[in-house]
Amino acid sequence: MGQVKEKKLRETIKLARSKGFYEGNTQRKVDWSAYTSNQINDVIETITFINKSVDSIDWEMPFGVVGRPPIHPKKLAKAILFIELLGIPERKAEGWLKLLKHHFNITDNLDDRVLGKAYENDSVRSILIEVFNKNCENNGIFCGDGSGLEQSRKENYESTKKKGLYITTIVDSRQIVQSFSVDSKQECQLMHDLVMELRNKLKNNSQIQQKLTLDAGFVDRKLTQLISDSKITPYIFPKKNLTFKSKGSLAWKKMLNFFISDIQEWLKEYHIRSNVESFFSSLKRIFGIVTKRKPNSIYVQVICRIIHNNRRKLKYHVNASFD
């Protein structure tokens, strides 16, 4: 009996990997009216969002600071979010902020050096993390993957891939980021931490069915079990020559049994994963390459871009109608 199931598994994997086998490929619907409205009102709505979301964070300035009073980190966080909205360097941003800083209730003069140092400010980073965590609601349908973060135009055209900076994310089917990591570590290792972060966010979530789709780069029995223990159904595309041996992971066997029992339905769930690819494409197309070089500055730049992505996608899906 075991040999028969193993043989069926190998045959099903071969079928699933064959071109044209999956039957359920449908075109994603777009509400062009909501999309157009989102584009037109983007700057106005983003400025309102920056003020409201940053001002809602409780953050007190420390007492007993010697010397010139520091600029409040909430003002710096607003300025950086505005810089990343426009995708401009600090010198140009200084001029824009002289013109528009009253929209953010900023009275300080923020020159390019102050703005550059703000990316390394731990308080600014903490405020931005809180803003991100408060603006990443989900619909329970998740997909994850990793992608390279180009730090120069040259990297886009190199013929050989080099180990560099990667972003690993979990997004929902609306491309709203739930958890992410910017690192050079192997993406499967990072996914364990991202699932734990997602698990903590879902503790009070009453949704009945949640699922997470991952490609074959995340084939890992421990990860599969972790996803299942988090009350999320795993859909991890199998590699060739996989076996039913669970090695302590009952979720592994359960996933593969569903895979061979109804392959088309399984693939229908799995192909939700295309949304994470669309997210990476959108992030890089809209915001361009990563321009920072220090690890903390890179993280701050990326989280600002993700905050803007989440706000835009949430706004679109609130206004969109797919009837």
Task: Describe the protein's topology.
Layout: H1 2-17, H2 32-40, H3 42-55, H4 73-86, H5 90-100, H6 112-118, H7 122-134, E1 141-148, H8 153-157, E2 166-172, E3 177-183, H9 187-201, E4 211-214, H10 221-229, E5 233-236, H11 250-261, H12 263-270, H13 274-287, H14 295-319
Parallel strand pairs: 1-4, 4-5
Antiparallel strand pairs: 1-2, 2-3
CATH topology of the largest domain: Nucleotidyltransferase, domain 5
Domain count, please report it: 2
Shape, principal axes of CA atoms: elongated
Flag low-confidence runs.
Answer: none
Mean pLDDT: 88
CATH class of the largest domain: Alpha Beta
Tell me the strand order in the biggest sheet: 3-2-1-4-5
Structural class: alpha/beta
How many distinct helices?
14
Straight-line N-to-C gap: 47 Å
Measured as a percent range, the helix fraction is 40-55%
Overall radius of gyration: 22 Å
